[in-house]
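3.2 Worked example (two chains)
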Amino acid sequence: MNLNNIQPASGSTHNSKRIGRGQGSGKGGTSTKGHKGQKARAGYSEKIGFEGGQMPLQRRLPKFGFKNVNRKEYRAINLDSIQNLVDTKGISGEITKEVLVANGLASKNDLIKILGRGDLKANVSISANKFTKSAEEAITKAGGKAITL
């Protein structure tokens, strides 16, 4: 086998229809576009959502919802994730944003909120942007501190 005798698999390629090349081709005259009308003209392209002049769906349905431009998104981290981090990585003392980023629990631009799911047995102080009440209680109960940034 050489590069000069490679062929595509049989049936995988088709001849493209050559339109507008005379009556003998069977695709001459109107070039498969029918007679007159908007779609027969050069340069025609249907707009997205166009329904032939009927009121389009996106204009028939009412607007709803509200996007708050001042919304703050927080990366939620549960206490069981922090306990898992302490157990597997052997982290003790203080857990800061840098520690969480280094261990893949958050990104460097995230705001962090600690949630109260799971048990925290380790005596650690955690620095984050926000804490839920249950998380704060569990941290202090374990002998640690919840430091709000």
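3.2.1 Second chain
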Amino acid sequence: MAGPFRHRPAVAELNRMLVGTAPGHLGIEITELGEDFLRATMPVDERTRQPFGLLHGGSSVLLAETLASLAGYLCLDPALKQQSAGIEINANHLRAVTEGVVTGTARPVHLGRATQVWEIRIEDAQGRLTCISRMTAAVIGA
């Protein structure tokens, strides 16, 4: 069974897209483009923690939206010059993280002509679920 991605750039190319952007400034790094998922890591450090020393919920959401937006773009037909733009995101923060690295994995729930829905699971270095997020994106024509 073929995966949902219509184009599969190298991971290095995806990471070049993050340079000079919010994800790049937070140290987010794409690590794997699988058959049906996109994965990235994000450090838990002074860039991503809130004042009380915990991973900031907004940082987790930024990781989730980065993954879903990039993955959504990869599912679109390049010939149609479409874009994928997030229109709603939610996140449940389940476990505190104070140091190390978190890993996010985005998988499609629904890939329609007008909308996409993505589930993003964020885990700590021990593989424990720290955040579960869902993002809806609109598919915008050229």
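3.3 Remarks
The longest strand covers residues 100-111.
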